[in-house]
Amino acid sequence: MTATTKRPTQGTRLPNAFRLGLSQAWLEIKSFSRAKDMVIFTLGLPVMFLLVFGLVFAGTLEGTDVSAGQWFTPGIIAASVLSAGVVNLATSMAIERHDGTLRRLALTPIPITSYLVGKILMTALTALAMTIVLLAVGMGLFDVDLPSDADRWLTFGWVFGLGVMAAAVLGIAVSRLPRTARSASAVFNLPFLGLMFISGVFIEFGALPEWLRTVAGAFPLRWLAAGMRSVFLPDEFERLIEPGGSYRLDIGLIVLSAWVIVGFLVAVLTFRWGRERRG
Amino acid sequence: MHAIEARGVTRRYGEVQALTGVDLDVKNGEVFAVLGPNGAGKTTLVEILEGLRRRDGGSASVLGADPAWASREWRSRIGAVLQVNTQNDELTVGELVRAYARYYPHPLDIDHLLEALDLTAIRDRRIHQLSGGQRRRLDLALGLVGDPELLFLDEPTTGLDPEVRIRIWEFIEGLSEQGTTVLLTTHYMEEAETLADRVAVLVGGRIVTTGAPDELGGSSGVHVSFRLHEPLLTVPLPERLPPMVVRDKDHIEVTTDDPTDVVTRFVLWADANGGELAELQIHQLGLEQFYLELLDHLNDWEEAGV
Ligand SMILES: Nc1ncnc2c1ncn2[C@@H]1O[C@H](COP(=O)(O)OP(=O)(O)OP(=O)(O)O)[C@@H](O)[C@H]1O
Ligand SMILES: [Mg+2]
Asked: Can you give the residue range of the structural domain that contains A93?
């Protein structure tokens, strides 16, 4: 047996960081899709929420012809998008941080951005899959209607896109919290459930005390929920449920964009492959 | 300039002083082995040089750069096999090696690499299904796929069957012939003797000796042993023997640099006295003997408080 090498041709360029990010995402998708139990539970949890809330609160909301299932669908979509980052992405990064995967990668010339782009794309895909499943169930059981006008789809596009990226950078930030891989799920429940309760996912946002609304307004979920409601609920809801009678998506756009841009920069700048390696 | 130059590298973990001022020079194209007992600091030293752990003090230059502040370009020139196995359980062998190949500017041909490491037959197998030795070979493939100028191998063949170990040695020899510099740690003296141009012995976080394996091993000489029967038991031994003669009743052991001379004189002496040497054995004291004796001495010194 002989080694199969030629001496390196010096000066060959390093691979493009963004393209590497795409192939990282592809690896993530392959790994994820092969862990069947993970796929089923990841997609099944939001559906279970929708079924439970939609079936328990039968009938239509007071003064409207909107069913409970229809009302809950956009909120649960918003929460699912958040969980794709704050729970799924954060858990996978916490595990890789503790099982040596990140240390091994640290020895290769893979750029931090490629690794993170792969994770963020995977988060977007997870969130999209959850959204599609939720909409399918909502349309089948609860008379949820897909919007028919381009305006609403446009809103859906940017709310989903910015929301999922904001969820991902938040997930990257909290992924450093658990001190062992085993504690990951316990740790991540806190930011997720906490945000879910203060952001009016299940209840009218306007029913929350004002200071809590202010706190929630600084995080992505409140805007994700408002955006999704503006897409999937009839127009009159804006007046009925929102404080001030408006979703204020202009503010939502600013908050989500800020999360994405600042969050990504902070993630790249503070990222550590291992506890000891710099940069 | 050397591939690796370390001066006074120190590292402490809480109460444990893992490295106490290590100096190390590894020349370009050399295969250098670090030996030492469990907990000696080998992994700590190697991972500091890989840029994976920080050092508390001293300086290090690896391929001309400080590993603590290494660039992407620098990382594309090194390859490494860590002491612990790689994860990514749900991917297949082929997928993971291909993924790693993408990180590097001029990766090796994957089919050849898998073939050389005997991984072709299992390239479509998931990583969590691999045996320990198969995982180790996968780690080697991942360390090599970037076609590194400098390769770090932390106990590369631990847990491998003897046949595979020899194939891997041949593979590493092939790399070395093409100019790859290798820094390896091992607990197998045979591995160091086969592969290494020079070895260093690291004990308690400090390098106690460095040299070529046959220099270190050879310096302890050749071992000659045999038994005596009547009538030789009562006859005085020949004169002018080397100082290292140990007699235990009928058993004689001689350590010498000149075994021919020793054997000839004993054979002539036995002949002249009407007997013969029973169970005559001659063997070269290798690196292993040297290493074990060295550790023994160090223990003695330590007990004596030196
Ligand atoms: N992360 C760590 N935290 C605390 N102590 C550590 C850590 N890593 C190593 N040590 C300690 O430092 C010393 C050197 O460890 P190291 O892993 O470098 O030894 P080694 O020579 O590679 O051993 P082995 O042959 O068993 O692999 C040991 O006493 C070990 O317990
Ligand atoms: Mg070790």
From this structure: 17-57+65-270
